[in-house]
Amino acid sequence: MKTKRAVLESILVRYLDEIQRDPKRSIRSLVDLGQVASGHKIQNHFVDLIQQMLTKDDSPYYKMIQNTATLVDHKRLLSFGINFAWNGLTQGTKQIRKQTDKLQCHIPWSLTLRLRQDASSLSQAEYLRLIGEGSKLGICCYFLFPADGESIYLALDLAEQCPDCAFCVVLPEGFDSCRKLISVPVNVILGLDSCSIDWKECVRLLRQRRMLFFLYRYYRSQEDMDEIISGSWAKQIVPYAGLASLLIFDGSAETAQQSSTIARYTYSTRMEQRYPTLMLDFYHDCLYTDNLISGSSCFVGLTPEGTGTTVRDGIEITTGQTIKEAGSLIEFLRTVPSI
């Protein structure tokens, strides 16, 4: 695996340089390579999506890819990208399918961990043990939601100590102190709240440091959803957007019934290639990816105290099961039903 990763990295280094000069030709060459290498339906799915992009000569995704290759440090792109796509969605997928058959329980492609540092929360050692167990099962992608400044550093420490995994660190809602983030591991992509006061200044700072980032926003009410579907939010963020733009539902049971309209909106923007950023809906696309990998959907998260969460009717809810009571990640996953 180390040899294959080294070969893949050397190929991508060359393509990153070429993309800056001639994105269309280079991306077509990469797609040809992907067609030869793809072997699982999730890989074929992504290759098919890129092929659709190539049919539109004026696709804004060309600009998105060129901007990413030009504005982001290549070491960061390679580390996060290979960990996410190769370790997670390629080698990890094979391991997940193998372990699922062996253990007879659903193994999700990612884990969502909400972090807070206080006496009742999981310790750093417990998180590291959890991620270590997850990696052995093939789970190499982690969404971390730190609650405050102190837990941001916990999230970054976890990423630094797990260099073969990909970490999406969603900075707390309203956070706009990017100057304090001095050392960010290369296997991290940072999520910035596009509704914080100084989010544009944060984007400027992260671009200056050639960081990998995405913009996100929570949506809770019908008014939020109307603003998103109208394209108003996209219009605000597109000049500043990174590789992706993430929408996260955080409303009530009443509004959850309408959240599927946001999932349809994000899907249609990707298929129609409306914006130079990938529009995603967090819960729906997590479940969609899981279904591509395993044939059924399963969302697995943990509260800071270690209580399990899953998604029901578009809402993340607690299951009542705890990782401490289970004793291991495998035993904990046995309690999580598919959706």
Quick rundown:
This protein is α/β, with parallel strands linked by helices and 339 residues long. The protein contains 15 helices and 10 strands. The protein has helices at residues 2-21, 23-37, 41-54, 60-71, 74-103, 124-137, 149-161, 199-208, 222-229, 232-237, 253-256, 260-272, 282-294, 323-326, 329-333, and strands at 110-115, 141-146, 166-170, 188-193, 213-219, 244-249, 278-281, 301-302, 307-312, 315-322.
Overall description:
It is a single chain. This protein is of the alpha/beta class. It has two domains: about 1-70, no CATH class; about 75-335, TIM Barrel (Alpha-Beta Barrel). It has 15 helices and ten strands. It has a ten-stranded mixed beta sheet with strand order 7-6-5-4-3-2-1-8-9-10, with helices on both faces. Helix 6 (about 125-135) links the parallel strand 1 and strand 2 (about 140-145). The protein is globular and about 55 Å long.
State the major sheet. Answer: 10 strands, mixed
Please give the radius of gyration in angstroms: 19 Å
Low-confidence stretches: none
- Average residue pLDDT: 90
Number of strands: 10
Looking at the structure, the CATH topology of the largest domain is: TIM Barrel
CATH architecture of the largest domain: Alpha-Beta Barrel
Give me the secondary-structure category. alpha/beta
Number of domains: 2
Summary tags:
17% strand, 339 residues, single chain, TIM Barrel, alpha/beta, globular, 15 helices
